[in-house]
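Researcher: We're reviewing a set of sequences before deciding which ones to prioritize for further study. For each one, I'd like a predicted 3D structure that I can look through quickly. This is VSIG4 protein. If possible, include the structure in token form so it fits the rest of the review sheet.
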Amino acid sequence: ALLDLSAVHQVEGEWMGSTTLPCTYMPSEGFTQQILTWSMERDHSTSTIFRRDESGDHILLARFRDRVSVPKRSPGDASLHITNLEIPDSGHYTCQVIWRSKNNSLITKDVTTTVRVIKVPATKPTIRAGALGLTVPAGARTSLTCVAHGSPPISYRWFRAVPGGTALPLSSQAELTWDSLRPSDAGTYYCEAENR
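Model: Here's the predicted structure for VSIG4 protein, in token form for your review sheet.
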């Protein structure tokens, strides 16, 4: 069981969502991880996506740039995280780790996971209304959080209602925060969620 990679056989990810392909092992004394590579096979051709060696992390396939990452500071965790999944990301992914032992011999292990990117029916974002009428003492720190369900990615905007005027945009985050509430902060706030 020494230096065995553990993984899963199949991972499903939603189109435009994100997924993690597990690849982990128990770090063991006397063995140093030398090289980690993630490669992908699709339509009978294999290409290397990611390589970690002494010189650092390298993303070797342009279409995965800014979309893949491997944990940096957790020994034994070589899992691949993919964001903004595209349909062509479906395929067989192989995690290969090469260790060097104290007597300078190399040990290589690999595991393969099949990824299926599925399209779920596109849905508009829906927001469940929160508690209406929130009373908070002046000077307190508070926040309002907007949570929408629907097809990712979802973007958020917070507004403050202005009597007889146009709404005042406040934030483009899901959370609206006040460090110290003032009486003038009293009013009506609403959130807007948007996806494609």
